[in-house]
Amino acid sequence: MENQPPLDELRKIRSLMERSTIYHSLSGLSGIAAGIIGVIVYAVVYGMIDPMVEKSPEMKYSDAGQWYLIKIYFAASIVCLVLSFSAIYFFNLMKARRNELPFLEPAMKKMFLNLFIPLIAGGIYVLMLVREKEFLLIPPTMLIFYGLAMIQASRHTIIEIRYLGIVELFFGLIGVFMKEYGMWFWLIGFGFVNILYGAWIYFRTERNVKIAGMK
Fold first, then answer.
1. How far apart are the C-alpha atoms of 45 and 38, rounded to whole Å?
2. Cα 22 to Cα 115: distance, rounded to the nearest angstrom
3. pTM of model > 0.70
4. How many other C-beta atoms lie within 10 A of the C-beta of residue 141?
């Protein structure tokens, strides 16, 4: 029992060191890149679908038309996901190498594990919504599980990610009650919120460090 307090202190010190490593490995540019990708993907999809719906409004109500639209949204979501995580991986890896820090060390692996568990669960739930033809609920549902993933991952990284998750969760929950505007909330959450978050992290930490290093 006498050794318990020192062990607790060692655990706290180890946790702080792991968080510090992740803090210096996470790049705000990755959030900016992910947000820009989200905005571009939304603009491309909107530019494709809007003219089609205006030309044939009935496609929104027919089974064949709805399935065609959902295929476009699904393909766009996969492209957005792959490009976003590729950008996140690239910028974080570059920052870790620049700071001469290990990237996939144990704390980072824990963060990614906690991140992907809610994301996988959300993906399965979205598939259920597709089967039930609850298409309007898909965008806010994606935001909700993305927000929960950020909150869960924040246990092993910087507290700012938790704030990002709470904001994403907030927009997702509003989108559930205003599902006809779900894609607009998707644009705000995955696009502009990520850009603002990444810019905040970048100008708050990385840019100041670069300027200090040049002096």
1. 11
2. 14
3. yes
4. 22
Which among 96, 120, 125, 122 is positioned nearest to 108, based on CA atoms?
96
Residue 133 token pair: 């033809």
How far is Cα 22 from Cα 191, in angstroms, rounded to an integer?
24
**Contact in structure between 160 and 197 (CB atoms under 8 Å):** yes
Tokens coding 173: 């929950």
What are the pLDDT digits (tens) for 14-55? 454 454 445 545 778 888 999 999 999 999 988 888 788 778
Eight-state DSSP code of residue 62: S
CA atoms of 69 and 60, how far apart (whole Å): 8
Q: Distance of alpha carbon 178 from its chain centroid, rounded?
A: 21
- Contact predicate 34/88, CB 8 Å: yes
Kind and range of the H or E run holding 211: helix 207-214
Phi and psi angles of residue 61, each rounded to the nearest 5 degrees, phi first: -110, -15
Residue 56 C-beta-side C-alpha neighbours within 13 Å? 12
Distance CA 89, CA 93 (A): 6
Tokens matching residue 35: 């947000």
